[in-house]
Amino acid sequence: MARLICTIAIIGIALMCVLAEEEKYEDKYDDIDVHEVLENVKLREQYYKCFMATGPCVTADQKFFSKIVSEAFQTKCKLCTEKQKYMLDEISEWYTKNDPEKWNAFIAKTLEDMKKKAKE
Hints:
By secondary structure, the chain is mainly alpha-helical. The chain has six helices and no strands. α4 packs across α6.
């Protein structure tokens, strides 16, 4: 009987681990039009400054994405929804082509953020 309880407990723990790994970021803000943001200089700069922590995060979606963007980028969007993967790809492509200096600064910040997180 004890062996059966132990086996059930192990299976339960394994299932919890599998389910936890597949949990995605919240999709509440997946309706953001990434192209509209990238094409609007004022809006694009607002998001960038929020992500870089050099300006305020004005909207709820900016606050949300600023919390996950470093991890999402460094993990190749492992926990992203399909729409979030698409948005990160579009942002990456736009900055790589149009403002590589800011893109390099963003990459450096994501690395710094992940190093800080690893020390916690």
